Structure formats: structure tokens, C-alpha cells
Amino acid sequence: MKKIFIYTLAVLSVVSCSNKKNSYDASGTFETTEIIVSSEANGLIKEFNMTEGEVLKDGQYIGYIDSLQLKLKKDQLESQIHSLLSRKPDIAAQTSAYSKQLAVKQSALNTLLHEKKRIENLLKADAATPKQLDDINGLIDAAQKELSLIQSQETAQTSVLTTQTNGLTGDIGPLKVQIGQVNDQLSKSVIVNKVNGTVLTKYAEANEMATIGKPLYKIADLSTLVLRAYLTGDQLSSVKLNQQVKVLIDEAGGEYKKYTGTIEWISNKAEFTPKTIQTKDERANLVYAIKIRVKNDGYLKIGMYADVKL
Fold this sequence. Notes:
The chain has five helices and 15 strands. With 310 residues, the protein is of the alpha+beta class. Helix 2 packs antiparallel against helix 5. The protein is elongated, with a radius of gyration of 44 Å.
């Protein structure tokens, strides 16, 4: 009876293993897109508030890199602009004298023109002489020439002042561009997370030196993971994009933890079977990769093995 009992357990074990082996159609490992966030500025890391395993949000402030030298450079550029602006001429103020002279001369000319008209009327009535008319015409001609001269002087002065203004404006332009560059560098000195996800690895600490391109931390969105599994050629006809499949994870006691996944990608070419992957047909040398997106309940981990039931 004892031997029979042992034999029975052995048979059940073989049957159990056989059932488990045939309970899946493909297998693979979980993966996700991992992003390495690097420094965009040079300097001492003054603040760096984050820990491995922490969940970060898009736009979350993490810390900053010392930017004192950039701030001083910006102050210097702004001071140069202020100095140039102080030398910028006030065209209206510096040409106001010409405007006043023109107004006076124009008023005098208008008076002479009125007097000319009066003399012309008197001349028709033989109450004035031709010499009076000639005299008034001479005065009008002189007034018009003076008016034209003042207008020319005003135009010339305005042109000179405009040239000076344009020159100073031209000098200010490059300084404003430099300030824009400094502002961009200052913004990059602030470390702000730009993707929702979980911190996988932290590469730097506060009070360490940072250089442009130095990795600061690695982050990935673990809310959903992608299972890369492999199918044999004869299984391709039974899968399609957006198909719902069962994903099985080993648990204690030989049981499976079950998830629902969606096929989001199917390779269009075969590859040699990875050494770490078992297929339903162990004789298959070539397999096709598929990607199955699975919502993570916190149990799934990157690199974890899983089986797929179509």
C-alpha cells in the first residue's frame, strides 16, 4: 500500500506539471519606457528633493542648480541696456525750438500776405503806389526763405537724432537676445519633472556638481506595463491588434494571478527564440514578438515573467 501511494503522488505531480505547461500559449517579460532625466545646466545642485520609488507628477518641482553667476550676468546686461537708453535722444524735445520758430515765421508770413492783399486793393483804387507792393513782395519772399531754411534745419536735426536713436536701438537688440539666452539658462537651472511616473533610480544628490547632460534620475510610468511575449508562426492566425488576452503570473502554491491585457503590437518579422523564453512548441526556432499592454495594480514589476493565454 505504501508503494502504491507514492506512485500515485508521482503520477499526480506529472499530470499537474503537464497541465501547467500546457496552460499558456506564450510567455515573456514585462517592460516599459524608461526615461533618464539629465541636467540642463552647470553648477552645484543646491536642492534635490526626491527618493527612489517616489511617484512624481508632470510639472512637479524637484530642486534647482546654483544660478548666481547667471543672475549676475543678467543684471549686467540689463544695466548696459539702461545706460544705452539714457543716451537715447528725445527728438521731440530737441526739435521743439524749430517748431516754435516755424510758428512765429508762419504767423509773420500770414500777416505779410494779408498786408499784400490790402495794398493790392488800394493800388486798384489808386490809393497805394507800385513801390509799396514791391516792398511787401520783397518782405514776403524773405519770410518764405527764412521759413524754408528753418524747415530744412529741423529736418536735418531730426535725421541726425533719428540716426543716433537707430544706432542705440541696434546696440540694444543683441543685449536683449543675450538676456533671452540667460533667461533660458535660468529656467533650466530649475529642476522640474516633465513626465508622470515612478522614480526607478536616483543618480545625483544635493551638493554634488552637475554638468549639462549628467543623469539625475530615471523615471518610468508604471501605471501600465507592456508584456513582450513571443508566438510561433502557427499561432499568428489566432491573434490580432486590440485583442483581449489573459495574462498569467505565477503565485505561491502553483496558482496563477490573472490579468486582462490588450495586444497593441505584432511584429511583422520572425526572430530567433530568446534563450530565456519558452514557447508552446519547444521545437520552434523562430518566433514573432507581440506587445500586450496590461494595467498595473501595483503587483507587476519590470522584468517579471508572465504567461499569455489567447
